[in-house]
Design goal:
Two copies of one chain form a homodimer.
Chain A: H1 6-15, H2 18-28, E1 32-33, H3 34-38, H4 45-58, E2 61-66, E3 69-74, H5 76-106
Antiparallel strand pairs in A: 1-3, 2-3
The first copy, chain A, binds a DNA duplex through helix 4.
Chain lengths: 117, 117
DNA sequence: AGAATAGTTAAGCAATCACTTGACTAATAC
DNA sequence: GTATTAGTCAAGTGATTGCTTAACTATTCT
């Protein structure tokens, strides 16, 4: 496996799991304890803690422990980074498509594009 | 593993791998054949085909075969869906943070928020 | 027709993943 | 001061992932 961009990698990997996305969705509504995060999930508490570790490693979530309760909250920077990556790819391709559309509208025959070099 | 949202799941899973993200980045610059996608990647062609299958299953990429060459291109809808999910979570939490900031600016003591239930 | 090119299919393998249970610590409630 | 609550740590397990090589088909070039 390549790994030229570790942070992006950790973020997308963290979001690739539906349980972790459920935790992020919960945290988007406000801070929560580990037990709060675990309550709706059909799995043991240690499993939730493991998911939390993945989320923290990715930078998407941070937590502080006060007394015996650990409070977790979202860290918007990681979400924004992934969002930006997606928007860059999408808009680059959409602009390409638009230019191709304009070109085809002005020409009669099929267009053959080459620029791999 | 939960799976309440299969399409989102497939998209984030597809993007969780750096080789597949490299392929998406390549496709954002324009359509490409399987060999084009494989060229910069340090792995065998069958491995690239397997990555391509994951990308196609997620809906991020589509391909058509003409003669002996399969041409792949990005499908912006999948990227946009992931982008929207990220923005929803991020903005929800940022608005929450803003409101908390306003509240704290107006109050003297610490604010204790509760709305779970 | 024969050789090269582009991609496909299948089988196999080591590493990682998403869990589990059990044993444990630390803070709070009674 | 004992019980309960909140979380942690470690070891184990079955499924999935990301790759490999080998054998194959279909198309294009000469």
């Amino acid at each position: 496996m390549l790994n030229h961009d570790a942070p992006t990698d950790l973020v997308f990997h963290a979001l690739a799991d539906p349980s972790r996305r459920a935790m992020v969705e919960r945290l988007a509504t406000g801070p929560a304890s580990v037990s709060d995060l675990a309550r709706p999930l059909p799995m043991s508490l240690p499993a939730v803690v493991q998911h939390l570790q993945v989320l923290e490693a990715s930078g998407l979530v941070r937590s502080e422990k006060a007394g015996r309760v650990r409070t977790c909250h979202l860290e918007p920077a990681g979400l924004r980074m992934a969002e930006d990556w997606l928007r860059r790819q999408r808009t680059a391709w959409e602009e390409k498509l638009d230019r191709l559309g304009d070109y085809l509208a002005g020409q009669a025959g099929p267009a053959h594009q080459e620029e791999s070099g």
